[in-house]
Structure formats: C-alpha cells, structure tokens
Design goal:
The protein is of the alpha/beta class. Helix content is 44%, strand content 15%. It is built from 15 helices and twelve strands. The termini are far apart. The protein binds 1,3-dihydroxyacetonephosphate (13P) and iron/sulfur cluster. The site of iron/sulfur cluster has 14 residues, from helix 5.
Amino acid sequence: MGGVEKSVLADKIAELKRNKRAIILAHYYTDGSVQAVADFVGDSLALSQKAATVDADIILFAGVRFMAETAKVLSPDKKVLLPVVEAGCSLADSCDAAELARVKAENPDHLVVAYVNTSVEVKALTDICCTSSNALDIVKGLPADQKILFIPDRNLGGYINKCTGREMKLWNGACLVHEEFSKEAIVALKEAHPEAKVVVHPECRSEVVELADYAGSTAGILAYCGKSDAEEFIVATESGILYEMEMSYPNKRFIPVPKSGCNEGCISCLDMKKVTLENIYETLLNESPEVVIEESIRAKAEGAIVRMLEAK
Ligand code: 13P
Ligand code: SF4
C-alpha cells in the first residue's frame, strides 16, 4: 500500500473513531502504520491499565487475542473489537486450561502466577497475573515460603527464579518468536558493534538474556534506550518495537538481531503483523469481530488481573 492510500485510510479510521467514540489501543509489536493510528501504544501492562480506565464506547485492540480478552475482562461494558480473530500467541497456546486444572489439582499448595500471555480461561484458574514489567515485583511481593506455579513462560519464569533465588515450578511454554534469538547472532553483532548496548526481552532463552546490558519489557527496553548514553543498541525483541525506538530516539541507532545464520533481517511475530490499516477500518466500520466472554469466566479472570493491577 502506498503512502497516499495509507493516509486516506488513516483519515477514514480517524473519522470512524470520532463518530463512534472509539479508541485504538496498540502493542509495540504491531506494524508502524498501525501504531501511527493508535490513540495509545504500550506494553502489556500499560495497555491493561489503559483498558481499565479509558473513556470510550468502543475499544479496538490492535494486537493479539489474549490482549483484547484482557481489555474485555477489565471493561465488560465496552464493545471490544479484535480485527483478526485468528491473531493468537504461541505462548498463550502453550498453556491449556484443562491441563492447568489437572496440574493445579496435583499441586494444591501452589499459588498460580500467570503471565498475561494466557487465554481468559487460563486466567480464570489463576491467582494473580503479571506482565514482564511487573513480574519480578509481583513474585517478590509473595511470602518467601509460598510455593508458586509460574505459567506459561519457562524463560520469563526461569529469569525470575534466577533474579529472586526462588524455585518456582515452571510451566513448559515459550514464545516461539523470542526463542528464535540466538547467542551466536548477538555475539557476532557485538563483535561488529563493540560499543553497542544489548537489550533483550526476558521471553528469550537464558543464554540470550545473559548477554543483556538490559533485560525487560518492551516499555522497559524503550526507557533504557532513552536514558542510556550509548548511541547504538542491539535489539533482541520483536521488530515492531523499532518503529517507536526510531521515532523517539532519532539520533540513536538500533540494530535488530537477525535469525541465527542470517546476516540481516528482523525477527517478527506474524500474529501481531496480521493487524493492518485495512482490517482496522473494516472492523471499526462493521463493529465486528467483537470479543465476547462468558460472565462466569470473565469475573474469575478479572480477579487475577485486578490483583496484579492493585499489587504494590
Ligand atoms: P510486553 O510488551 O509486556 O513486554 O510483552 C511482550 C510480548 O510478547 C507481548 O506479546
Ligand atoms: Fe505471543 Fe511471542 Fe507474539 Fe508476543 S511475540 S504475541 S509472546 S507469540
């Protein structure tokens, strides 16, 4: 799509938003053209906080299904739209509610801490949620002798175990996008750019996180790049974040880590990239597809998310 067509669509989207009192929430991993039409772009925590407080009749969620579900759980009276129903998440898919119920029954003394990258059915079986922004604080805030089952990300869970010295039981799930980042690719970039700082999302494997000058959520990574005196950054998270990085810090250079064995190119989440200006426009126009959640599930999931939002 050319620049003119994009700006025509962006204008039509803006008009629909005004007429329908709709707002667009977008994650940093969506395409730059999508982030450009959003009212608010953020990490998973900021997006949940926004969804809970926003003044609008319609929330269009530019992201993947678990994010739109979280918005609906927190704003049940609003119409929540998800442009592509099939936009899923490998991490959320790695934890099935029936399997979690079975593991919980086998471990009745464990508290379930769930990364927000889970389905609403899984959240309904969860004691408290967390995001990569607050996971360390949430876990540190639990009594030291409390047994914990951490779901579904074995990489984020392992990182928290390492930082806190806890021995949480870890679900064996992972983000297939972040698992593509390799130690070899980062070491090669570091040789070519010795002054560059390495920023890594904790969904990456431990040998990758160990190379980080900074490891944290997408918002944490952005804040670190802003504060750091460094001029170059080697970026080990999904490519959509480069849009915000380059907009916010035009004088700094961001080098995406390519797939292992490739010299260039970015690692992208194809589910996040399913959201486009075209399907945002169609979704707002038709007010469909809409996220619908059965009330008994929603109310249980809300408890786990609200406990996270209220945690100090
Ligand atoms: P954050 O934006 O919370 O760091 O989440 C990363 C992610 O993988 C979202 O799908
Ligand atoms: Fe899920 Fe990974 Fe894509 Fe995030 S980047 S939505 S965790 S598959």
